[in-house]
Amino acid sequence: MEQPGQDPTSDDVMDSFLEKFQSQPYRGGFHEDQWEEEFEKVPLFMRRAPSEIDPRENPDLACLQSIIFDEGRSPEEQAKTYKDEGNDYFKEKDYKKAVISYTEGLKKKCADPDLNAVLYTNRAAAQYYLGNFRSALNDVTAARKLKPCHLKAIIRGALCHLELKHFAEAVNWCDEGLQIDGKEKKLLELRAKADKLKRIEQRDVRKASLKEKKERNQNEALLQTIKARNIRLSEAACEDEDSPSEGLGELFLDGLSSDNPHGARLSLDDQGRLSWPVLFLYPEYAQSDFISAFHEDSRFIDHLMVMFGETPSWDLEQKYCPDNLEVYFEDEDRAELYRVPAKSTLLQVLQHHRYFVKALTPAFLVCVGSSPFCKNYLRGRKVYQIQ
Amino acid sequence: MGEAGAGVGAPGGPEASPEAEVVKLLPFLAPGARADLQAAAVRHVLALTGSGPGRALLAGQEALLQALVELAPASAPARDAARALVNLAADPGLHETLLAADPGLPARLLGRALDPQWPWAEEAAAALANLSREQGPCAELMAALAAAEPADSGLERMVRALCTPGYNARAPLHYLAPLLSNLSQRPAARAFLLDPDRCVVQRLLPLTQYPDSSVRRGGVVGTLRNCCFEHRHHKWLLGPEVDILPFLLLPLAGPEDFSEEEMERLPVDLQYLPPDKQREPDADIRKMLVEAIMLLTATAPGRQQVRDQGAYLILRELHSWEPEPDVRAACEKLIQVLIGDEPERGMENLLEVQVPEDVEQQLQQLDCREQEQLQREQAPEPWVERATPT
Predict the structure, then answer these.
(1) ipTM over 0.90
(2) Which residues are CB-neighbours of A250 under 8 A, at least 6 positions away?
(3) Residues of B in Cβ contact (< 8 Å) with A209
């Protein structure tokens, strides 16, 4: 359209250029229905940069990018560009990309310690928001090595320690920062917060320790009571061969788990009498009953009267009535059975020299004496009677 | 303790005046002097400081004092010299003389005390602690602190030295605490310590439990008590930014077994204390702690905060344990305030109440009678917190 030799910006040329469009349509414009999208693609009018720049789609942008990130520029300039890029990503809360940018900036190993300190500190901030507190701490430590007085690094470090629950460390970092600027508000706030949390944590440790001690004393007292009654406990089955000692805790823990669905445990009442969790097993029908607190002075018959007031659902022959029942315990070592008189108290039976309490939960076998099952069950086994 | 002024062993000549004799020591104290002679000279000076007249004699000798301070740190005589200065400073009658002779003494001693490398920093601090008991030297010291470096940083360095374990590898610097306590008698020092835009007093709080030195604990508690006179700061002191009350109560608390409900009412720092918790062994420090809490109850809101934070429980137990009558009395008074009725209008700030003259007289009479009674109960032995090297 230009005539060679003419100045393209002269009024005449412009006029004739524009006049053409009175007869010819202009073809270089945006399309009517997608002009907004096309608008967005012009670098000058972009509101947001695309996350990936495809040179074919967006050659202008790719061009600009290569200018900015030109390897020909000094390391300091490149690092600064990466820093700015990182900051932009940070503002958009794209912390992952920010970390990458800052890392690229640090890779340039430029000679400016201030710039590097800022890169480290900013990367630390991005890591902080990603929840990578230890990485963030590494970064602020590096920043402080370059610039010991960099307050932002110190604040970030204190924040990280706070998140990691290193309250004493957090206070220390705040104090170090306050040595540089005694009035820094954020540090004053952080310090007060960390100090308070530290003291709360100390209280919690004391509380837990006291509770544990109390429990140990209670367990010790229970064990003493058992010993005083000459009740024998069987060795707690140690699954872990390497465990150094069967602490009281383990012993009581055994009693708490497995057969104890309700977490019932051995207890001592105000009169110094024990109540045991007791298991009744009915081998005939592979059923069981669990008594959560069988007072040691109560008799078997008393419990059986209550438990079998009505015959249980599994009792198909309806024969399990208190009068018919026979109670046994097994001496597992010798595979021998002992018949327990229904009128004995629990304590009397437990004190039997062949009764060994397993997992602090005494167990007994119950069947109907006259039944064929019982006769069969007892056949061929040594059965003793207890007085 | 021998009498000062006797012949020093100087060669020849008829009986010279004590001053002249002492001046003869000077050359031996000079930096380049022969080591053994120097040591002997300093030991002699130290011996002189063991008696009143000896001290008086030395206090007026400016050159001598300067020589004492200047002695090379690594030498053994320097330690004796430092101790001699402590003794001199311990004598209240001599402060004027000392300062007249050597006005730069406080500043120099301060420099020594806060120098992390100075091996006799503890002695320098002790000498300053002694000096600062009197108004005059205290003011001098404040001036030195203000002049030395940018504003407040002298006091800041002192607090930092006190709060940083291992600040000086060779000197524990416990005597910085009583020094701070004396300085806190001055409003300017309190203003710095209680600056709400800074974190100063907060750093001192954990030291109320410092196990290894009653000198340090006493100094810190004394400082805190003096700070509690500033009733305009009570709300801040009792609030979460400082939270002073638990630190005042903790040394007064024993291994009490409170119920769950009572425990929840106590501040966090006083909950679930272990069974081997000891109370503050020094009765004077316990008294100062009670006094500090009493000061905090001067205003109505302060009283409420102290009540709300469970002080009563701790004080009740303290009262039944306390063996010392005067501490027990102070404790009683405080408990009265906590459980008593609120005073009438116009009396909300007990520190500012105008007491009518006749009432004032009555109160003074009551006080006198109480004092007499206390004295009958205990042997009157005034406790002098004078720092002297052992």
Answers:
(1) no
(2) A236, A243
(3) 272, 274
